[in-house]
Amino acid sequence: MRIGLIGAGHIGSTLARRFTDTGHEVALSNSRGPETLQELVASLGGPARAVTPEEAADFGDLVVVTIPYGRYRELPAGALRGKLVVDTCNYYPQRDGADPELDDDSTTSSEKIQDFTEARVVKAFNAIYWYNLRDRARPSGDPDRLAIPVSGDDEEAKSVVAALIRETGFEPVDAGSLAQGGRKHQPGSRVYTAELSADEAHSLLDAA
Ligand SMILES: NC(=O)c1ccc[n+]([C@@H]2O[C@H](COP(=O)([O-])OP(=O)(O)OC[C@H]3O[C@@H](n4cnc5c(N)ncnc54)[C@H](OP(=O)(O)O)[C@@H]3O)[C@@H](O)[C@H]2O)c1
After folding, report:
1. 0.85 exceeded by the pTM?
2. Distance of CA 176 to the CA centre of its chain
3. Ligand 1 pocket, residue 13 CB under 6 Å
4. Per residue in 26-35, pLDDT tens?
């Protein structure tokens, strides 16, 4: 699959490595420009290129948005419209600035990104520390395989992302719609950054 990444920091670069290791082709972008990503791209060792965010959006059959939430209005909305977008972003008011709609719980960060981009957004890879993505991939059936909660309003999009998570060495656990998952696996929730098996994650998400 062709995967575009908007954001090439801890999560973006780690996912890019996992994706190229499992045979996908990636295009990475950040806010400072492709020239600042040459070293990272060269280190991936798989099919990878450095591009602008708009080019990453155009490139991807699937596009990962992995930037500080507070900057989501800088996303290339036109290029993302209708695309399958994986949103790893979390809302941290001290980093992102206060968002009254999130503070009063009237919506979720992923729904706001979906509304802004008109993409088919799936929330995933937001509740696992980047170093566990780097170090804790395990084959299917391994008792130490970690769960990754997944939520979204488009079932087909969610199943594509679930397959990608399995390939990268983790176990997807369905947390429902974006409105549900955006609350059940956000910062402060019980599954957030916890190192859980699929069964443990299911129980906590069901109880949330
Ligand atoms: N770190 C974790 O363990 C972790 C785990 C799960 C989820 N998350 C969430 O995932 C997101 C990314 O986290 P991170 O730790 O990878 O952040 P990070 O290391 O700070 O990297 C952020 C990346 O976003 C890029 N960026 C910022 N604004 C952009 C824009 N307008 N257009 C394109 N790229 C832009 C930055 O590029 P420049 O450097 O060029 O500005 C950088 O490559 C955050 O929302 C975070 O809360 C983090």
Report:
1. yes
2. 16
3. no
4. 999 999 999 9
